[in-house]
Amino acid sequence: MYRISSSDFKKGYSFEEYLNNTAINKDVFKKYYNRNLLAGFNKEKEKAEQLIELLKQGPGCKMLAIVEDWCPDAYFTLGFWVRLVEYLEWEIQIFKRDSGPDMIAHFLKDGKAKSIPVYAFYTGNLEPLFWFSGRHTAGVQWKKERLQEKDYDDLPPREKVLFRRALAAYYEESLFEATAIDLLEKLKNSLNL
Question: How far apart are CA 61 and CA 74, in angstroms?
Fold first, then answer.
């Protein structure tokens, strides 16, 4: 995992700065940020609460996020991570993928894909813990089943709208929860809590 310097880490945006530099979906980012920290946890709310409280007792960490305002996986999840970092009194820096090619080059999925969002976790003194990028495996499978052999970019505009609506509903139903629980557990294990 990329060992980032303190000076490079600080080159990112705060959430407010990121929103001020966002052209689209600003309202969606705000919506998910303004929710209760445990909103979106439907089946495993108690587990999420326990994991979050364990993290609160652990050492302080830092988080790096690489996102873009057009990415549904970013705007459905970034708000939670920002809220969590605030609650835990950690630090987060947000980078844009498309205007920051140097940063995304360190987090290529399978060594080649510029998948976002990237969520990278570090100790308080920036020792690497782990990172995640792209869509959760449950979401990847859902997309395959939904699109079958089609590519999203080749869909007619109306079908793209329907796909995005279905994806939003799937995030609300279970994909957000699956993604967050998996990453919270990884974080707990990385910190030996």
Answer: 21
